[in-house]
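Exercise 3.2. Students should predict the tertiary structure of the chain below and write it as structure tokens, then compare their answer with the key that follows.

Predict this chain's 3D structure.
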Amino acid sequence: MFDRAIITVKAGNGGNGIISFLREKFVPFGGPAGGNGGKGGDVIIKADPSITSLKMYSRKKIYRAEDGKNGGNKKKHGAHGADLVLAVPVGTAVFSKTPFGESALLADLAEPGQEVIVAKGGRGGFGNAHYTSATHQAPRIAQRGEPGEEQTIILELRLIADVGIIGYPNAGKSTFLSAVTAARPKIADYPFTTLEPVLGAAESGGRGFILAEIPGLIAGAHLGKGLGHDFLRHAMRTKMFLHLIDGTAESPVDNMIQVNNELALFDSSLSRKPQIVVVNKIDVPAVRERQSEIRQAFREAGVDVFFVSAKSGEGLPEVIAETARRLSLLAGTEEKKAESPVKVFRPQPVSEGVKVHKDGNVFIIEASGLDRLTTRRGEPDSEVMMELKNRLNRLGVNRALVRAGIKPGDKVRCGSIEWEWS
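Answer key:
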């Protein structure tokens, strides 16, 4: 099962603005007519019910949106680049990989049609018509397009189920799922028979619900041992757990505690999910003889248990009925929570504006957009310098340079443009 993928996404670059002048036979003094460049396309990840796995992202690793087109003459703006929409299964969590190797959640696409922009396209550059003013009526400068964003994205498919069946390997989870649903997982008498989560639908009292077998839980699963990390994330979406215990184990209570510890260590929210604890293999004579002893041990731990035989079907109707009842209670709780949603404030980052800092003997100015000014020849000339200095003066950069201790003759740099302060 392809349920995790790491890809690189690159949004489209913005188109360049152009330098052009209107020259038509009956239009004297046509003036500047260079159009702006188009915006680069975004990269969007969208939940699509028709997609069932992340297999398509196991081969191709780099995805690019379309660049914006350059501006044209007669003030024609360049076309925007087409967005790139990457379809993923419903239930996919989208993370961005930070430079420090960590991952930050961007979106949890749990509903069909949900989408998130993971890389924004660059803005188009201004053409020379944009720089026309009363005092500057024939500008010969334009602006290059802004580069599109690029980042590494982690896609994780987390199955959406009402109930997660958890427990140690060989506790009978696959047999239980096949007995109460139409699912047909692989069943064998050795651990780790199930190598991928399996879903099944059950019904009781007119209420249907989805069960998912969550394999791979052993001591150290939260550290990735066994199949831990591969499948523990699938437990995140379940509303509750059906905790299956092997009745033939030396200490069923210790098994329950160990699995719960692994859940809590992987994510503390998992330890707060409701559980129905079920002791399996009551059909084995040794387990039936110890039934009272096992029940008492769980009572001392403050847990009520059900005894079932997934093989013979004994006790299964009672467990499924209790599961449906608990889910009904949970649904009522969720509806109440939905009536009073918690407000989450996500402040937008403050624009960085213009920054000034010193690097050796050079004063560096970081000013978004200004470092992309260009001329028809592609090299900065007196007109670019005039526009740049006027804009910096209006932004208060000259005062900031003086406060930073600049003196006549010192070097100043903005992007690739460097000049001597005077």
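Discussion points: The chain has three domains: 4-157, 163-338, 354-420. The helical segments are 173-180, 228-232, 252-266, 285-289, 291-300, 316-339, 382-394, 397-403.
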